[in-house]
Amino acid sequence: MSALLDVSGRPSTEDAILQSLTAYKRYETYDLAVAEAGIRQFMAPGRLSVRRGDRDNVDARAYYADTGAVGVGRMSYGAEVRVDRQADSRYLGVTIPLSGTIRVWRGGEVVEAKAGESLVVIAADGHFRAEWSADCDALMLRMTTSSLARAAGALTGEWESGRPPRFVHQVLPLEEGYAVHAAARLLAQILGQYEDIAVVPNALLHQLSEHALSAALLGLEHDLSAPTQRTFRAAPSSAVRSAIRLIDGEDGEVFNVNELARHVGITVRALELGFRRVLDETPYQYMRRTRLERAHRDLLAADATNGTTVTEVATRWGFFHTGRFAASYKATFGVMPSVTLSASQTGHG
């Protein structure tokens, strides 16, 4: 992996995030025109400008990893830069200042997003104008509207509409945008563990992308936020049993809740209500418990001669953050997964 960026001269409360994506450099330049051209390759097009006296201070850097449906990156300019972004129906963007501030124009009003306090939602529709402070370093999340439309179909049950939800430009307190903030951080931290997006397991890319899409749909305001006039009802027991059979038949992590609902032909909300009625837990809780048990089974059955690792078993069952997997495993089985693996290998020796 490339050397970590020296951020010692830039105040930041998020050093780990600032350093996590350095393998995905898109540009590092003192020329704002080069940065403007570079941004067009992975974000919506826009114009960058700087006060004449600040041109010599430009030190623009961008790091960006793209899963297809979702992308995450971090950007800075080193000078106070004006951003004029044209409407782009392809993308929804979220900008999270990690240091400094971003001032956003909304009509005649200027709203300031501050590091550690707020985030900026950049809608697909409508001209967007903002100004980054010279010390601003930001985490960027970009989602395609086509992927949001697909994910929204799973949440609303309107599978065939194909219409993406419509968001609005806004500055939100972090506590209101917490789900999206957390999804962006997770995406950056996990992808940052790999040298190249091409070597990231497809199952991991899929899970991270679906998580980010769901976070945006459930955590940000849009025109599909309120359910349509129908009342959501719990899925019938037969649909819950079908979903359970799909989960129980997995050879590894395959489904997320959205996909599970689509396979049995009901909405996510109906599936959640059905699981609560039948099992007194959510589909996610059932999947997580079942996959923990299977990871435990696989660790017990591991053979020292085949080189099985805890990370391999955890990843197979959809636990891509090994620290959290270890904590959940110990809470459930009373020992760390490495202890189970060591014991099983001793038994095979």
Automatic annotation (TrEMBL):
InterPro entries: AraC-bd_2, Homeodomain-like_sf, HTH_AraC, PchR_regulatory_protein. Keywords: DNA-binding, Transcription, Transcription regulation. GO terms for molecular function: DNA-binding transcription factor activity; sequence-specific DNA binding. Residues 241-343 form the HTH araC/xylS-type domain. SUPFAM superfamilies: Homeodomain-like (SSF46689). It comes from the Bacteria. Gene3D superfamilies: Homeodomain-like. Pfam families: AraC_binding_2 (PF14525), HTH_18 (PF12833). It comes from Nocardioides panzhihuensis. This is AraC-like DNA-binding protein. PROSITE patterns: HTH_ARAC_FAMILY_2.
